[in-house]
Design goal:
about 150 residues; Deoxyribonuclease I, Chain A; six-stranded mixed sheet; two-stranded antiparallel ribbon; 2 helices; 10 strands; globular
């Protein structure tokens, strides 16, 4: 649109997988480097925002093979070497097994030591971004984290 200066995305097909990072025109933003996954699973933008170096990551995690997926993303982020990281997206898993899921705990794999922004602001809130009507299950799988 007329308000967007930069568009970074990764897409697999027209109806499966895809992530995007959009940057408005009126923001002091300079891209240093960007990376994208061939199959629409992640996009990473290393940039300077308002004078601060920040790495932005948007993920769409697979339902299976998650350790390998997160290992790949974390290696790229570590190699960038930036301490300011904002990561968001659909992780297909939960961060807090008691607050973010209605059954069957399986916590998120987090080798970067990220802070869940939602959980920081609302430490005891039970809310969900996914609901399975056939299984009557709720999960908070989409979130933003930062270091």
């Amino acid at each position: 649109t007329e308000r967007v200066r930069y568009v970074y995305f990764s897409a697999y097909s027209n109806r499966k997988r895809g992530v995007i990072i959009l940057v408005r025109k009126n923001i002091d933003f300079r891209v240093l480097k960007h990376y994208s996954h061939q199959e629409g699973r992640w996009v990473i933008v290393d940039a300077v925002l308002e004078g601060q170096k920040i790495t932005f990551v948007n993920v769409y995690a697979p339902n299976t093979s998650q350790p390998e997926f997160f290992h790949e993303v974390c290696n790229i982020v570590r190699n960038i070497g930036n301490d300011n990281i904002i990561i968001g997206g659909d992780f297909n898993q939960v961060r807090d097994v008691y607050l973010d899921k209605s059954s069957h705990p399986r916590p998120v794999h987090d080798p970067l030591g990220l802070v869940d922004v939602w959980r920081l602001l609302y430490p005891q809130e039970k809310d969900y971004t996914f609901y399975s009507h056939p299984h009557s299950k709720r999960k908070l799988m989409d979130f933003f984290s930062t270091i």
